[in-house]
Amino acid sequence: MSYRNEAVIYVDMDHVLCDYEEAWTRQKNLFPDLEFPQSQPGMYIGMNPLPGAIEAYRWLDDHPKTDVYILTAPSVHNSHCYSEKRDWVEKHLGLSVVENLIITPHKNLNKGDYLIDDMASGKGQDRFEGMLILFGSDQFSDWASVRTFFEETLNLGGSPPKAGPWDAFFNSEAGVTDDFGLDQDDRDWLDMKPVGNEKLD
Fold it and tell me: Top-level CATH class of 7-155?
């Protein structure tokens, strides 16, 4: 879990942010003889956003209690998949979100509080340390239901993120003394505000 004040949320792309099925059908019509039409350039960048996806992502990303990333698995046999997914994010969400784009087939290696994904396993989703929001399930059938869940969870404070071992040190004056046994001189030193004229020993 996160040791930060924000809940770390990962959002999948295919079938979650993007309409993969529609794009695949269109690509299959262009290349009817190919078993894997996604092997040809153009499909990933051409995916349309799912209804409500862009608005919900921006709401999550702008929320003061969240730290949001896109976490998507690549088609490892198609090198264009990597670049097209990157370009899709810039096209629909902006360049700043590209900096929070993670492309990996091992989603369990990313530490966080929530993973919004349409698959329960296959790319490490079942070993993700946080809560899996199974997009397309009865509970989270669309982006409206996902947003409702986070509105309630974040407004109530939610359970994650859990407090880390250093929270008392940085956030609680009483906790500093209780947890670390600091005397008054030490606490006075911690409370000092540098003014720029200090001399180094």
Answer: alpha beta
Residue ranges per domain, the chain?
7-155
| Threshold 0.90, pTM exceeds | no
Instruction: Give the pLDDT confidence of 12-70 residue by residue, as tens digits.
Output: 999 999 999 999 999 999 999 999 999 999 999 999 999 999 999 999 999 999 999 99
Q: Report helix angle 53-62 to 79-93, nearest 10.
A: 70
**Mind telling me the catalytic residues?**
12, 14
